[in-house]
Design brief:
The complex is a heterodimer of chains A (about 325) and B (about 290). Chain A contains seven helices and 20 strands. With about 325 residues, chain A is of the alpha+beta class. In chain A, the strands form four sheets. In chain A, strands 12-11-13-18-17-19-20 form a seven-stranded mixed sheet. Classes of the chains: A alpha+beta (about 325), B mainly alpha (about 290).
Chain lengths: ~325, ~290
């Protein structure tokens, strides 16, 4: 009798144990849980050039996903079983003038590899939805427009160590970037190029392009937006930076004194930011533009004549 | 569950009218998503079943369809990630990631489950109250051989069931019966299957002798439509018109995702009352129900 009871109660005990483990592992429980605070939601069109909606304090609930946050704050239609956004407030993906157009989202400036319904929202996350032409670049793996993210809150709710890698650690530009980070309460380490010991870190490479191109992730910029997701193509000698339009066509070639702030990724590695330029003057100009005001809602920024220029560049502007 | 002739207006109606009536109720269940209207359809078909004396058949159908409906209602929140109101977090479940159960997915699951129950009840009403022979006769014009095969199958199933009961009783009387055991059941199944083949040969020979293969059956004279035929046919037409009209007029709109939206106004309330009234109206006239 007792052995039968023991045999019968074994699966129930196992289930109870599994349930308890699941509950202890976190993320399990009744109700929605605590809502993440400090989140922001931005909805734009054409690489951030046209603002559609801006929520400094969007409606948010516990156990929120990127999709739920959007649906809670805007009128959304979805496709592919609800995992992907088809339209926001009536602006739909599809084709425009024969070019493919769709909605993409970035969490703290990083493109997600999952659908919006599968990405969890964490405190402080900045969500940016942008509808743009993806004919020239199917992927834009990272953008600078959510600065000071991803340095403040990292990725997936985990803050990553920040390392500023300078071609010349003693240069004024390197110091300016370091101070800019510190001013935003972002603890950062400073060192030379390629000296990082921590694999899972956010790197900011500061220096002229001839030096910055040694970084394997940043070198993708020379191959154009299809590879890097950045609508600017520095020349291998670092003397010129070609600003591209949304279709990946050259708009103008920028020469001496030009700076560039861009972010990209190599595979699944964390994003690498470039604060670079055609020369030291360009790098210094880029370092000065490392502000929320200059970078906000921009995929990448070229600094020409001391003025930040949004990339991809609108030929009409 | 099978057709049994009873004294009810639905039984008195011709198969085409009765079938159209049941199909119209099922169409309403499939077309209308609003919980109030779906509830009205379930009330209507339940009322029709009681008025037609098919309470037991509907109860049997409910017994089987309710667990299925409940299963649909429970599975939906597990597989659907839509909905804004999370009521339970299941945590990380590989490979799905974080699984959240939402009120919207649960409600939509309940709506789907209710729809399953409603359609099952409509089918049960059809089986219990619409003459299957007459129904098959309707299809004779479309496909004579298919209708004949279906008619024979319908006839043969109860015969085989009776055979199996008799054989099981006979087997139980034997000292080495093994009643209830697997070998005993196999013996009865084998005997019934053999008997079915024998009967099939007999039926085929009879049909051949009677000239069914020649397809020269005499068409019976068309019967005039009775008051019940007209009432159920009209009810079916009005039910379909109500469902279509509601869709056109935007009455009874229901959206589960991302947030529940099921407005209840005079339009929805009126439509619910109309569905029940139109569905049950033909049962009011009980003259001439003994057929």
């Amino acid at each position: 009798m007792s052995s039968t009871f023991a045999r019968r109660s074994r699966p129930a005990a196992l289930l109870a144990l599994l349930g308890a483990l699941a509950a202890l592992s976190g993320g399990c429980g009744a109700g929605a849980g605590k809502a993440p605070d400090g989140t922001r939601l931005t909805v734009t069109q054409d690489f951030g050039s046209r603002a559609q909606r801006q929520f400094e304090a969007p409606k948010v609930s516990g156990s929120e996903t990127v999709m739920r946050l959007l649906q809670r704050n805007a009128k959304v239609t979805t496709r592919f079983g609800g995992g992907f956004v088809q339209s926001i407030d009536g602006s739909a993906g599809g084709r425009r003038a024969g070019r493919p157009l769709d909605w993409f989202f970035y969490v703290n400036g990083i493109e997600s590899s999952q659908g919006a319904a599968a990405v969890r929202l964490h405190p402080g996350d900045r969500i940016w939805w942008d509808r743009h032409d993806w004919g020239a670049a199917m992927r834009v793996p990272a953008v600078v427009g959510s600065f000071p993210e991803p340095f403040l809150h990292g990725s997936g709710g985990r803050r990553l160590p920040v390392r500023i890698e300078c071609a010349d650690p003693a240069a004024a530009a390197c110091d300016a970037v370091f101070k800019a980070m510190n001013a935003l309460d972002i603890p950062a380490a400073k060192g030379g190029l390629g000296t990082a010991q921590v694999e899972d870190s956010l790197r900011v490479v500061v220096g002229p392009w001839v030096a910055a191109r040694d970084d394997h992730a940043l070198r993708q910029l020379e191959a154009g937006p299809a590879r890097s997701g950045v609508y600017a193509r520095p020349s291998a000698d670092g003397r010129r930076i070609v600003a591209l339009d949304a279709r990946g066509r050259p708009v103008r070639t920028l020469g001496a004194g030009t700076g560039l702030i861009a972010a990209t990724r190599a595979g699944d590695e964390p994003p690498v930011w470039a604060v670079t330029g055609t020369d030291d003057a360009g790098v210094a100009a880029a370092a000065r533009s490392l502000t929320e005001r200059a970078l906000g809602r921009r995929f990448a920024v070229a600094v020409s004549g001391g003025r930040p220029v949004a990339l991809p560049e609108d030929p009409a502007s | 569950m099978r057709f049994r002739r009873r004294a009810s207006p639905l039984h008195a109606a011709r198969a085409s009218a009765g079938g159209a009536y049941c199909a119209a109720l099922a169409a309403c269940a499939l077309a209308l998503q609003h919980p109030l209207l779906l509830g009205a359809v379930i009330v209507a078909v339940t009322g029709a079943g009681i008025a037609a004396g098919a309470r037991d058949e509907l109860a049997t159908a409910a017994k089987f369809s309710l667990p299925l409906g409940l299963l649909v209602a429970l599975v939906n929140p597990l597989v659907v990630r839509d909905g804004l109101t999370v009521f339970f977090r299941l945590g990380e479940i590989p490979p799905f990631g974080q699984v959240d159960l939402t009120v919207e997915a649960l409600v939509y699951g309940l709506v789907l489950g209710a729809r399953v129950v409603a359609v099952a009840l409509c089918c049960a009403l059809f089986v219990a109250a619409v003459d299957p022979d007459e129904t098959l006769r309707l299809f004779r014009r479309v496909s004579f051989r298919s209708a004949l095969t279906a008619a024979l199958a319908v006839r043969l199933m109860p015969v085989l069931a009776r055979d199996s009961r008799r054989m099981a009783d006979a087997a139980a009387c034997r000292p080495d019966s093994g009643r209830g055991s697997a070998p005993g059941r196999v013996a009865v199944l084998r005997a019934v299957a053999t008997s079915a083949l024998d009967r099939a040969v007999d039926v085929a020979a009879t049909l051949e002798v009677r000239g069914y293969g020649a397809r020269t059956a005499v068409r019976p004279a068309a019967e005039p439509w009775s008051r019940h035929d007209v009432a159920f046919a009209a009810s079916a037409v009005v039910l379909v018109a109500l469902a279509a009209g509601a869709a056109v007029a935007g009455i009874g709109t229901f959206a589960a995702y991302p947030a529940l939206r099921a407005p209840v106004g005079p339009g929805e309330a009126g439509l619910a009352v109309l569905i029940v009234a139109v569905a049950l109206a033909p049962f009011a006239d009980r003259r001439g129900i003994e057929r």
